[in-house]
Amino acid sequence: MIRRYPVTGVGYLPLSYMRELFHSTPETPLNHTHNQVLELLFHGGLLALIPFIGMTAWASHEALRHRRSPAVKTAAILLMVFLFMGTVEIYHTDPLYYPLFILLGRADCLAGEEDALPRISFFARVRRDLKKT
């Protein structure tokens, strides 16, 4: 089925409709893939899988850069646990991945670095620069 729709996947259709679409029978039941990566590829195709892999790589890179922080270590361990759990079964932890991606993506803030956030906002800098001209 992944070969039929590699780019977009089959979508998130009701299971009864998918059974009709793919001619599922009691001998060949249609359930789920028991793997988070394959499930993303099945439902969303490469359009869903590539951003997921990119966010995982970005979060991992930031976690490695700030690995001395206990908060970053905890978030990274949680992400790795969820990723491992997703390889053997789907526990519907999808909503938990994305907050961890965001937390680890801003690992500099999570680590408590002083220069993590700009001291003045972007709009304040634009106003300041416009006043100079």
Give a quick set of tags describing it:
mainly alpha; 133 residues
Could you walk me through the main structural features you see in this protein, from its secondary elements to its overall organization?
The protein is mainly α. The chain has one domain. The chain is built from six helices and no strands. The longest helix has 30 residues. The radius of gyration is 21 Å and the shape is elongated. 17% of the residues are buried. The mean pLDDT is 78.
Give the topology.
Blueprint lengths: L14 H7 L14 H30 L4 H19 L5 H12 L1 H4 L11 H11 L1
Overall pLDDT metric? 78
Oligomer: single chain
Total number of β-strand segments? Answer: 0
Range of strand content? under 5%
Task: Output the structural class.
Answer: mainly alpha
> What is the first-to-last residue Cα distance?
60 Å
Low-pLDDT runs of 5+ residues are none
Question: How large, in whole angstroms, is the Cα Rg?
Answer: 21 Å
Shape: elongated
DSSP helix fraction? 55-70%
Helix count from the secondary structure assignment? 6
Summed up, the domain count is: 1
* N-to-C series of helices and strands: HHHHHH
The largest sheet is: none
Question: Nutshell version of this structure?
Answer:
By secondary structure, the protein is mainly α. It has one domain.
